[in-house]
Amino acid sequence: MVSKELKVLLVEDSQEDSLLLVRELMRGGYKLEHQRVETAEGMRRALEAVSWDVVISDYSMPSFDALGALQVLHESGQDLPFIIVSGKIGEDLAVAAMKSGASDYLMKGNLTRLVPVVERELREAAERRTHRQTQDKVRRGKAEWESVFDAVSDLIIITDAEGVISRCNGRVTSYFPGGYDAVLGKRIDEIFFGAEQPEGAVFRFLHSQGEADEDVRFPNLSGWYNVTSYPMRIEGNDRGFVHIIKDITKRREVEEEKRTSDRELLTLYAVAFRLQYTKGVEKVMGDLLFQLHNMLQMDFSCIHLFEGERLRMRASLGLSPAFEKAMKSLPPDEEWNRLAQSGRPFLGEEPDARFPEKAKKGAIAMGLHSWCTVPLKIGQEVMGVMTVGTLSGHSYSDRDVFLLCSIAGQLAVLIDNYSLYDKMKEKAEELYKSKMELKENLQKVKRANIELGRLNTAKNNFIGIASHELKTPITSIMGGAEFLLKYSGIPMTPEQHSILASVYEGTVQLRKLVEDLLSISRIEAQGPLAQKKPANLMHVCREVHNLFVLPLSERHITVTIGGDEADVPVDEGFVTLAIRNLLENAIKFTNDGGEVRLTGRVLKHARLKELTPTLRQFYSAFPNNIATAQSYYLLQVSDNGIGIPVDERVRIFDKFYGVGDIGHHSSGDTAFMSKGSGLGLSIVRGIMDAHEGVVWVEEAAGGGSTFSLLFPLQK
User: Fold this and answer.
1) Identical fold at 152-253 and 278-396?
2) d(Cα 540, Cα 653) in Å, to the nearest integer?
3) pTM for the full model?
4) Residue 710 reports pLDDT greater than 90
5) What is the rounded CA–CA span in Å between residue 381 and residue 259?
6) Which intervals hold domain Histidine kinase (predicted)?
7) What is the Cα gyration radius of the chain?
8) What is the pLDDT of residue 549?
9) Is pLDDT of 435 > 80?
10) Distances (CA, A) of 85 to 29, 31, 656
């Protein structure tokens, strides 16, 4: 017979009684692990140290009793069988012990029931543990189901057979501000439709296969939704319904966007096809208006063209005779004429004061509601306007205006082509008559071309001389002077050293002047930059900094470089020149031991508003003078030098302008001692203009100057 293992905690003050209990259990076939305690503290330590199967306790001991042992067991939180074995115990005490949690009680004089009682209590304890585990699994499963239920992105609502809401998931808080309290116990039709009666049985139709209803809108919610309902049995014969409400607003928006885009593309294609006709401008304008009425559901339309300063109607469709007569010819003093000359669209919901008085009455009489007028223009030249209108409550959106402007732009090009063709026909005779004059002037033109070629060659030769014949000797002079000053070791008097230093500084200034002149020439000749490519401006700053390592170390000027490592579309050669000029100026105007900082960061388009008051001092048209982009890169060169007077900050970007004497434009004693050419900052501004960016200067925090370069990033 295989022995069963059993761990027994004995609460007993008698060693002999404990041995009797152990022997009885071993006779019952148990292999025992046991421990005897007789105090509350001893029992606590034993419960913490070992996982016991059963506790057997004497009822009364000198310093402890069974009721105290039960209290200690309850405090430990363990569910163990607790059996009282006592030499004498009254029935009332036994009942009290059982009420306190004891499993059973035996008399020490009769231990025959001990093994059966232990076996019974072990079985019941195992059953209790199994029951608790089952209950824990049920609770955990319910909690998991609740989490999944609340995590579903769709709104799920459970109602009874009458449509009263009994439960919903956590998505309810996204649609109803009051959350659960706003919907539980309410009728589902009431919370979605309010006082309005729903069309059809949105929440009553039972889907045999779970198919969804058509897309619907609810008065109490914004957007579009899809509702699917399923029957369910709740308890007994009670029935209910599960309603799944899916938010399909984004899908509908995408579908609507596609329909709108398709309509716009089809309209543009149809218009482009119509504009290919060559039957005359009047016929083309009439066909265009007819096409717009078909494609865009217009009710009224007309086209006016400028004849001098007067607007004259050249085509119309759907207008009443009274309105057409009032709008036939509009003099310059009419508000409609003035708005047309502005070259910007204008629109409204009803005929208003912008209409001529008679035209306004005619528009009201024919039921004009929404209307939009867009310019016919090429570049900045306004040729006329196209007006469309509807009888319905449809309002013209920005997108509608953009589409109409695109169509008007195509029409303007065609009208301009016809106009040019007519003018060419008128000029044909004049050109023929001028043939002889042109023949006579041909020789003059040839001679002028020869002279222009000579001048152009002379200009190119001059640039070649400036870049080679001047730079080469200047470099030789500067190198020789620098060698004599710094490395030759030739003894010189102070006067000789001063003269030679003056020669060296003058040569440096002359070389800088030649380089600046060549840079100005290249910038003005090249125009808009065609060599833009992404470049890391922080990397460029570090490369420029390396060019000034020696003078910086001699003057103990600290240069810090740091910022956003973003790629900026620039002409790297020109930007390097701009940063070099700014860094050289910062070194020149900073005292020995000073500090120069080069920083860069990305700015959102909205930040331009903050810069406008400052930049308007330097660019009156800002922000219209820079490229429109979603974001910009701001590169700043700051120093703690002598600064620039407020009244001269704008003028320093002019060619050949220098800010007074300022100590020969140097705050150091070892380098950059000469006054500049006055071209460096002009070059920087030219480079920023070519990049469609801006440059400006402000006082730095703590004194000195901060030069800022703003480059457009994403368009």
Assistant:
1) yes
2) 23
3) 0.36
4) yes
5) 34
6) 465-715
7) 48
8) 83
9) no
10) 20, 20, 115
- Average pLDDT, rounded, for the chain: 80
Asked if the model's pLDDT at residue 77 lies above 80, the reply is yes
Q: Name the band, by pLDDT with cuts 50, 70 and 90, for residue 677.
A: low
Q: Which CATH superfamily is domain 530-713 in?
A: Histidine kinase-like ATPase, C-terminal domain (3.30.565.10)
**CB-based contact 146:133 (threshold 8 Å):** no
Q: Between the CA atoms of 540, 542, 548 and 552, what dihedral angle is there, to the nearest 10 degrees?
A: 150
pLDDT score recorded for residue 602: 92
Residue 210 binned pLDDT confidence (cut-offs 50, 70, 90): very low
Q: Determine contact, residues 349/368, Cβ cutoff 8 Å.
A: no
Structure tokens at 387: 């007006």
Q: What is the pLDDT of residue 665?
A: 45
pLDDT at 662: 44
CA–CA gap between residue 531 and residue 352 (Å, rounded): 52
Give yes or no for residue 676 having a pLDDT over 60: no
Task: Give me 577's structure tokens.
Answer: 């020149």
Q: Is the pLDDT of residue 634 over 90?
A: yes
**DSSP secondary structure letter of residue 111:** -
Q: Nearest to residue 525, comparing CAs of 686, 637, 312?
A: 686
Q: Are 344 and 385 in contact (CB under 8 A)?
A: no
% of the chain exceeding 70 in pLDDT? 82
Q: Token pair of 13, please?
A: 């003050």
Structure tokens at 274: 């119509």
Consecutive H or E run containing 635: strand 631-639
**Does 541 score more than 90 pLDDT?**
yes
Give the Cα separation of 639 and 595 in Å (integer). 6
CB 563 within 8 A of CB 599: yes
Instruction: Give Cβ neighbours of residue 489 (< 8 Å, ≥ 6 apart).
Output: none
Average pLDDT, stretch 352-356? 90
Concatenating the DSSP letter of every residue in 512-577 gives HHHHHHHHHHHHHHH-S-S--EEEEHHHHHHHHHHTTHHHHHHHT-EEEEEE---EEEE-HHHHHH
Buried/exposed 470-503: b ≥16 CB within 10 Å, e otherwise: bbeebeebbeebeebeeeeeeeeeeeeeeebeeb
Query: Helix axis angle, 281-296 relative to 249-274, nearest 10°?
Result: 160
Candidates 3.40.50.360, 3.40.1000.70, 3.30.450.40, 3.90.550.10; correct CATH number of 278-396? Answer: 3.30.450.40
pLDDT tier, 696 (very low <50, low <70, confident <90, very high otherwise): very high
Contact 30, 3 (CB under 8 A): yes
CB 302 within 8 A of CB 324: yes
* Other CB atoms within 10 Å distance of the CB of residue 78: 12
CA geometry: angle 11, 13, 16, nearest 5 deg: 105
**Pairing, β 300-307 against β 381-389:** antiparallel
Q: At what angle do helices 494-526 and 471-486 cross, to 10 degrees?
A: 150
Q: How far apart are CA 316 and CA 290, in angstroms?
A: 9
> What CATH homologous superfamily does 152-253 map to?
PAS domain (3.30.450.20)
